[in-house]
């Protein structure tokens, strides 16, 4: 194991959790050593002016697609890490649906090492649950967990582990290894050919519908399997009001279930499909306004644990085509924080402490990272993000760091921006530029 590099920096005039008067935060060798006013930077330390911005723990994304290996034309570990650092992230979990699939330790260890070499964000590879995402045979989870990457989360994301017996075995095996299974909840028999939320818009537009039950039946099935196995299970990209109610029930029973919601499912609804622009095509599909509202409330009250981007880059030719043929997925890393501000902070559902909870603390806890999502206190690791809460900017896909530009937020005005990201005391991004 290589020792990760650390740095020293003085963050001047920042407001931890957006509270109180601005203070200076001194970081030496990757650790916060002093918080106060009028601090001076020791020799060799960088000095960053925080301009009174909000200081938060660095964001942790449990759901990112980096497309390396296999589709480096659409995203690489470097380009995805760049987007992550600019978006305020200090750790991202890279999904296993690459080519080849990350179903063995050769792939997961390579992703881990490449992430370390780039050094902009901690890239944690997610291992596949089944060989080749085929849903038939369990992958060697133990080998991946025991490798250099120390894989701690497994998912067939993009596909559902739909066989209930196999899912039960995966949960049992994962419990023994102390790792987490994250489920893409989609009963495939109910979504054959489905491209849009089953509802009035899909009917009107002649698009094949994706029923809510396809998601909800797997959510409740997996909650029950986790209960019986004494296992933990994590639900990827929760998208319906019904899923929220099932999560509430399962948590009330004491079942160890956690869930994430994407920024796009918080903000966008299926009325956008009337243009037939596949930029809005995603799995699970954009739902209805009542779902947006239920998901926002669930995130605010903790029924949904965290925000995860499901950053899913696709090439122009995979998006600029007939709706049914287009690939599902949208960019997310650089727009996540502003959308959380728009949908939760501005309406008063979350304060900045709450943003720290859903973007950093809870995701870090779910995957048991000990150096992320930590309190902003002396002696804690300096994985930090500075936000300008008053900034306003217009999204331009072509200007985002991703190699792809499939953002559904094109031309939208965003509130708030990340001004600085710090990984173990090293400034990784500042004023819209990465440092390495
Ligand atoms: N969300 C998507 O629509 N697409 C994801 C896969 C997934 O998250 O299910 C992708 O890999 O492109
Ligand atoms: Zn998925
Ligand atoms: Zn995904």
Automatic annotation (TrEMBL):
Binding note for cofactor: Binds 2 Zn(2+) ions per subunit.
Active site positions, chain numbering: 310
EC number: 3.5.2.3
Catalytic activity: (S)-dihydroorotate + H2O = N-carbamoyl-L-aspartate + H(+)
Enzyme class: hydrolase
Superkingdom to which the source organism belongs: Bacteria
Gene Ontology CC terms: cytoplasm
CDD domains for this protein: DHOase_IIa
Keywords: Hydrolase, Metal-binding, Pyrimidine biosynthesis, Zinc
InterPro entries associated with the record: DHOase, DHOase/Allantoinase_Hydrolase, DHOase_cat, Dihydroorotase_CS, Metal-dep_hydrolase_composite, Metal_Hydrolase
Chain segments annotated as transmembrane: none
GO molecular function, one term: allantoinase activity
Tagged with keyword Hydrolase: yes
HAMAP family xrefs: PyrC_classI_B
Protein name: Dihydroorotase
Organism lineage string: Bacteria, Bacillati, Actinomycetota, Actinomycetes, Mycobacteriales
Name of the gene encoding the protein in the UniProt record: pyrC
């Amino acid at each position: 194991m290589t020792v990760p590099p650390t740095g020293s920096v003085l963050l001047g005039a920042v407001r931890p959790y957006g509270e109180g008067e601005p203070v200076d935060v001194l970081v030496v060798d990757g650790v916060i050593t002093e918080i106060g006013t009028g601090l001076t930077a020791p020799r060799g330390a960088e000095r960053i002016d925080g301009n009174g911005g909000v200081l938060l723990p660095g964001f942790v994304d449990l759901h990112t697609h980096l497309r390396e290996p296999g589709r480096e034309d659409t995203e690489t570990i470097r380009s995805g890490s760049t987007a992550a650092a600019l978006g305020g992230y200090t750790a991202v979990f890279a999904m296993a649906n690459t080519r080849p699939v990350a179903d063995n330790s050769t792939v997961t260890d390579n992703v881990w090492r490449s992430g370390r070499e780039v050094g902009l964000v901690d890239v944690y590879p997610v291992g596949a649950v089944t060989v080749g995402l085929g849903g038939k045979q369990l992958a060697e989870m133990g080998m991946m967990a025991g490798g250099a990457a120390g894989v701690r989360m497994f998912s067939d994301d993009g596909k559902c582990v739909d066989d209930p017996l196999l899912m039960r075995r995966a949960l049992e095996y994962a419990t023994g290894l102390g790792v987490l299974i994250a489920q893409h909840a989609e009963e495939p028999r109910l979504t054959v050919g489905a491209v849009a939320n089953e509802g009035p818009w899909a009917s009107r537009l002649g698009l094949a519908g994706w029923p809510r039950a396809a998601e909800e039946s797997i959510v409740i099935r997996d909650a029950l399997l986790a209960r019986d196995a004494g296992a933990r299970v994590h639900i990827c990209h929760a998208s319906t009001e019904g899923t929220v109610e099932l999560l509430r029930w399962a948590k009330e029973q004491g079942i160890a279930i956690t869930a994430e919601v994407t920024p796009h499912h918080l903000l966008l609804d299926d009325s956008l499909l009337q243009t037939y622009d596949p930029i809005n095509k995603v799995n699970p599909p954009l739902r209805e306004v009542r779902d947006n509202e239920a998901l926002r409330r669930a995130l605010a009250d903790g029924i949904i644990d965290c925000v995860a981007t499901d950053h899913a880059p696709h090439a122009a030719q995979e998006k600029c085509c007939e709706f049914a043929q287009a690939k599902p997925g949208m960019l997310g890393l650089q727009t996540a924080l502003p959308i959380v501000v728009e949908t939760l902070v501005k309406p008063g559902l979350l304060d900045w402490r709450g943003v720290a909870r859903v973007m950093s603390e809870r995701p870090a806890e779910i995957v048991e990272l000990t150096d992320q999502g930590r309190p902003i206190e002396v002696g804690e690791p300096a994985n930090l993000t500075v936000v300008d809460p008053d900034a306003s900017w217009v999204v331009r896909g072509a200007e985002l760091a991703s190699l792809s530009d499939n953002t559904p937020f094109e031309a939208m005005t965003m509130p708030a921006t990340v001004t600085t990201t710090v990984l173990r005391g090293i400034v990784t991004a500042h004023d819209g530029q990465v440092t390495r």
